Predict the 3D structure of the following.
Amino acid sequence: MRSTLTARRIAGVVCTIALLAGVAGVVAPAAPAVSPVAEAFEPTLSYYKCPPKSLPTGVQCAKLTVPLDWQNPSDGRTTTIDVRVKRSKEGKGGLTFNPGGPGGSGVDAFPSVYSLLPDDVVSKFDFVGWDPRGVGGSGLKLAGPAQPFVGLGLVPGATGGAEISEAKPGSPAAKAGLVKGDIITKVSDRVISDAADLVAEVRESVPGDSVVVEFLRGGASREVTVIVGSVDSGCQYGTVAPAYPPATGPVDWQVYWQQAADQIAAINTACLAANPDSAPYLGTWQVIRDLDALRAALGYSTWNYWGMSYGTRIGHAYARTFPNRLRAVVMDGSLPSAETTYGLATSFPSNSWVSLQLFPALAAPAAARKMTVIEEYLNGKVVAFPDGTELTRWDWAEQFRTLLGSQSQYPTAVAFVNNLYAGITAATPAERAKGLEVAAMISESQRVLLEEEALEMAAVFVFVNCSDLHDRVTPSELAAASESIERNYGTPRPYSMGLNAACFGLPPGDLSPAIPSGSSMITLKTPPVFVLSSGDTATPWVWGRNLANTFVGSSTITYESTQHVDYLFTPSDCVNEAVTDYLITLKLPPRHRQCTYSPGGPIALR
């Protein structure tokens, strides 16, 4: 439901190299002030028959027609927003939400979120779900011409050929027999001296081409023919890419981030060029105007709004732009108030370290030492699982952090630690195989989930973030930040900076206006409630505290957990009852409420 994309996703799977958290950067000149909308646009809401078996029973489906560009609403170009509405008994207004991302679908999340809402809430308010532009059933899809595809991951920085880090199962490369560890030295008549040479050669080919690939395996020269495949434009973020920094040993962060910058820029540039009528109009500046148009079309004077993760950016921008159109606001797992890619990147890795310290204290005291042993082991070795797959330090950091984002996954996280530790410290081959077999199953399930999420959400994720945040970074700045973070928090931590380093090749002037920001305080008729996790794996506690400080009279609820998004996604009565009471009565909880950890996950009520 909330995005957990990380470095590999936008760089290796998502783009052609690395992705998930933060950055360092040369700040672009301030964008010119956006002129106010000159002419009114009358949004239209058209209801249609919902798909079979849509839940909950009685839900209504609709399309909202809005301008393609709210800066020029009368130019005749429009798009549509997909909407779900479950009417309430009392009809006291509308409660809407955004499940995060950017790229999360409110329509897909609608049934499960509705099932968690207390009866007092669903009987009082209509519940409204919607897909932001570019997501799910809404308009502005990112697509483009077919691009050549062979399905290889490459070891960054390798010289004397392009060493394969992965041949994606079912890809043209895998079908031709190429495997991890092969070193490609020549493609057709082109000598391959490093990964960049191979990437360039693939990009110059045409889907359907037959290319002869010469490579070394075990020191022996071999040759195969690869039939170049195709994927949709770079907007699919899944072509040839070095998936990770080196699996073991020291990392030259300058080399890694330079490769990332070059390849991400190429993909982003291609995607933008292929989508001139959609990519420039995906930013949150546009989204909040869609949200207000939806409010007007449904006939609500104000919204009750629940923002989760990225949804808090929407809530903040909406409150700063339309402060009189909010009755109640719940900000859950917040981003900071004056976001920059540099600030997000450099503050996020330390939070990963905080999460790792809190998890054992809450759920598995014996795991603390084992986690340290695992990280030390993976810095020097790659774990070979019995099923033929492998686990590197980057896999471990990404997969384990994702598990900690949902406390319902704590038992799986404990099993991952215990079995991986047992496998790498086993005294006999049989004991090693037993531990690693379980660890392999957990690792593979996490790998699949992350890959699917990346392919589904990555393009929107990139273009919304890069539209919203107009500062840009250089590889040298990323490298300098990485070296400092590595010294303080361990080698795997800088890898998570890739998420917001994904804007290479996207000039701010070609995108949607930046989100509204500034140091002025926001005053709402009823102040918002912020729900924060002390060890949140995706949005650090301090980010939420920072955003709360910009709202006059806001209250915070701090929950002791690594959970990302707490209200109704944990069984904590301390959190849930206070937020529910606020939504119904507008009664604010104490300014700084503290809630202790409650084991378990969400409990569906219907």
